[in-house]
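Subject: Protein record for review, amino acid sequence with backbone structure tokens
Why sent: The fold of this protein is of interest and is recorded here as tokens.
Notation: Tokens come from a learned vocabulary of local backbone shapes, not from coordinates.
Attached in line: The record itself begins immediately under this heading.
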Amino acid sequence: MILDLNNLKILETYTDSTQLEQFGEKGRAGVIIAELKTKTPLLRLEEVLGYFQVPASRHHLKVLIDKKFINRELFLADVKQIEKIEYLEVTQQDILLSPFYKNEWVLGEKYLNIVTKD
């Protein structure tokens, strides 16, 4: 999720295994129930790509947020928190300079990288 954390109100947290059973496999590490303090539209990935006029021919690419891998099915964003969406092709330098991701980067693979505002 891309949003202003100051606009987030935590309502409930679940960490006990008996509480987490109701959330199934996806909730096994813990669940936080939250709401936004103000009405802010949160957009799904396809809506964000349209908002930033990303060509449809690139919508199939893997998506990163600030060069970190994400699950596109769980993506929600406040577009006011996004600076730009850039098209990346992994270079040898990316692999060498990013030891944390070197096992995930594929030389020549193309990505859409969502750059958030600071």
